[in-house]
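hey so u asked for the seq, here:
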Amino acid sequence: MAAVKNVCLRNNPIRKIVLINEKLGLINLICGTILMIGYQLAYLSFKEKKFMRNLALGPGTRVTLHFALRMRDGELIDSNFEREPATFTVGDGNLLQGFEQAIFGLQEGDRKTVVIKPEHGFGQRNPNNVQEIPRGQFDAGVTLEEGLVLSFADAQKTELPGVVKRFNDDVVTVDFNHPLAGRDIVFEVAILKIEPAQVH
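ran it, structure tokens below
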């Protein structure tokens, strides 16, 4: 019987086709994996953005907002609607607690106007905070006038602003109540961004 010889053609077209198919299969596998990773990342990014949009303002959050403060009669006290927005972490002291609590639960894109009562805002007026100070304790270079805001220091050297209510040659009556004490404040906010507060 004649021996069977394996014939290996150097330029075997069938072998080339097999190699090409193997390479294409590997490329398709790599491309599929990359696409799958891309879809997963996009999905995670979508979930994160959705979570951020649904995040409600409250403890543990950092907020960026526009605000306006007005008196009941509409007189404007302060506003940043025409300026850069304010950014702060809830509870860091940048906003009075009563004002913060009035906007808890708001989300990005929300807008709200609420009336802050004195007990939740700048406090009630205290008659004991109106004091008479001898005229001689004031620097001779200070020109006194009603409504003038002066800075005083208490026993702990803490700066304390006071408003001159009236004066004569002997005494100066100074009101140490906050200028907005006893007033209802109309508080308007527009929430631009809410994110988790960074814990250091």
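The helical segments are 13-54, 97-102. The longest strand covers residues 185-196.
lmk if thats what u needed
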